[in-house]
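Whether sequence alone determines local backbone shape is best considered at the level of individual chains. When preparing material for the folding task, we compiled for one chain both its residues and its backbone structure tokens. No coordinates are needed to read the tokens, only the vocabulary itself. For completeness, the protein is quoted in full, as a sequence line and a line of structure tokens:
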Amino acid sequence: MSDTSMIEKIAKYIPSIKPSIVTLTTKERVLNTLLVIVIYAILSSIYIFGLDLSVTQRLAQLAILFGSNLGTLTTLGIGPIVLSSILLQLLIGMGILSINLTTEDGKRKYNLYYRFFAIVFIILEAFVLLLSGTIIPNYSLDINPVVLHVIIFLQLFVGGIIILLLDDFSSKYGITSGINVMIFTSISIALFIRLFGFSIIADQIQYTGELLLAIDFFLQGNTIMGLVFVSTILFTFIIIYLSAYLSKLKIEIPLLYVNIRGETQKFPINVLYTSVIPVIFIYAIIVQIQHLFGFDNQNIIVRMLNPPRLLLSLGQYGVSYILDPLNIIHIFVYLLIFTIGGMLLSLYWIYALGLDPNNLAKQLTENPALGLYSRDPRIIKEDLEKYIKPVGYLSGIFVGFLAAISDIVGTVISGISILLLVLIANQLYQDLEKNGGLEYVPIIGKYLKK
């Protein structure tokens, strides 16, 4: 028996959600999507038994991007699902796996492989989190350490399976994929908490949300710090607006094909061609490097990789902060890491996922639904080559710059979180529009149509 058939055979025993046998209404799909949000929120509030909940803030920020709330049943988040999808796309793109996604059999095979690799990554990530010390068992409990590790692993595994099923359920019964829903929910909750969060300790209210902190500072007469937090909130919404604007921009590539009416066929591509994936990789690499140095802020490397948060630093230290050459270097290094790194990783991602001119030319000339069907792919490839690489560079630079400038100035949540939130919101809107569900968000729908 071949390895391929073995994987498919194993994958058949992995739990999945059966497709609906009746056509669901848009209202039912919207309600099912809301159900996924509620279940995810509940999972995010259920803490894993046996864990020491002290987690570094930097690592917690990265977890948000993967729909994860460290220490809860959503600790693994959608990471295993995303990794499974990326691995499959790479294997298919490089020709290692031969799966034709235009056929029903190809879609069936893809789904089996997808579930199999997702389970593999759930198991691997659970082990890595435990063995790397990212999550730490509470050894003060009167439980054998080996048994304690097994208990925690099983909770991580069950949480990962539930999230896999939620993604499957949302894709088949909801408006959009569960990945979109869970990341959007995760970042939205983080944004809400960073704006309006507070805690009560010993009958004393302590404000953690930046809007509440701004009001509190103004009431105390500390105008400077009040203005700092107001500025970070305003800048957050400026970055949201710029991200939304760029996400809707497209470049139309003229192709060497003229239709009957004498019009040149054009192929539109988004300015943010490679989305936020390159910057997510940069962020992940930064966290891993800092982890090697124990997140010690006294270490020059860790310090240079931390977000500068200029507004907050100016509020705390005054003009003297920007007079320190090391702080100026810090800002420029941070900006260069994200812009140049984003540009290079964007180009790599184009070829890794088959978004390059050669693959696009094949797709355009092999699709009967397009006017370029049966044309010579070499001609189309030549036209695409003039645009794809420059747009790829531009995409990486734009996304890297927005993420970096957001962290440099200091927004309510990280720049990459804002970008991801906006892009997923745009995708959710498109999915609602496709399913005729804009009536459920009339104010947002009216605004986005402008």
